[in-house]
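Students often ask what a holo structure prediction actually looks like on paper. The answer is less mysterious than it sounds. You provide the chain, you provide the ligand, and the output is a string of discrete structure tokens encoding the 3D arrangement of the protein together with zinc ion.
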Amino acid sequence: MPGPILGYSSAMDADDSLEALHGVYQRWPKIDLHRHLPGAIPFDTWWRIVREKGVTLPSDDPAELRRRMSISGKHDLKTFLKCFDLVDLVYVDAETIEQLTYEVIADAARDGLIYLELRYSPTRMAASAGISTAAALEATIAGRDRALAGHDITVELIAGLSREMGVERCTAEAKVIAGYAGRGIAGIDLLGNEIDYPASWYAPIFRPLAEEGILGITIHAGESSSAQSVADAILELGATRIGHGVRAEEDPAVLALVRERGVTLEMCPTSNVQTQATADYDTHPLPRYHRDGIRVTINSDDPSISQIDLAHEYATATALMGMSPAEVQATLYTAVEAAFTAEETKERLRAHLDQFFATETA
Ligand SMILES: [Zn+2]
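The corresponding structure tokens follow.
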């Protein structure tokens, strides 16, 4: 295992340590498997585009709009999700969707991410822009491809189904998404309100996709809903990855299932505290799971809404959750393993990490 990280001292108090570690982790190559495109649009970018496009807004005051699109304290998941109603107004046409995809990826590359999986509901974007779901998917793929040409980052796209659309609509939308498997879309997700729309309702959509194996399957579960939702996502929907999974530990049998199946949990510390999936950072199960042989990764979820970046989440894991830098480093290799991307891409990412950690650590 690597030695101590330069600039890091375990004797620092939490705030000093958080700031110092943020600086350290900013220099690390980083991987994010769980980032929502709408939640990652920098406010200034959003503001510039809504002004350019003449979007009608509920307020003309940028400070007020920024406040309504960000979370700093603790809220329930529904309040958190409400921020997106305002964010989504920015999608006025296909060109805007393409441009925002480009800008979110450029922003991630500037933050030192070497690999990013970006997820979004193409249906929501399409509804806002007044275009078809296929056109929205094509706009995101075009934005991704343009961004990749000019930045040192690899990006895969995950199309999500919003639970609130209902099973029938989700079934139709899943068919459109599946048509882009291998043509720009790498995975599929189930998004939105977990409590009123349980994952098990959507099993008839996901099960055939899991059997076909054409898209990676990750399901939001165990965030506001119980451990059982995690078991349902794995057993009924065929998920190999779970978005969050914080509450899996409420049932030891579910935790055992996650471990035995090698399911990867995409955990997002700040978002998980903000939505009260866990009471606070020191109750978050990330370090426990990691030490218990569960495959965990550290992700940002909605960095602009939560007002964080990925380096902040790595720093939080160390300063406030007690994970050593070596343990954070291990989660990066877990993320490579679990990525919805080609094996040669994984080998390249591992080589990038190996090379960085060979020189960064003593
Ligand atoms: Zn999420």
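The radius of gyration is 19 Å.
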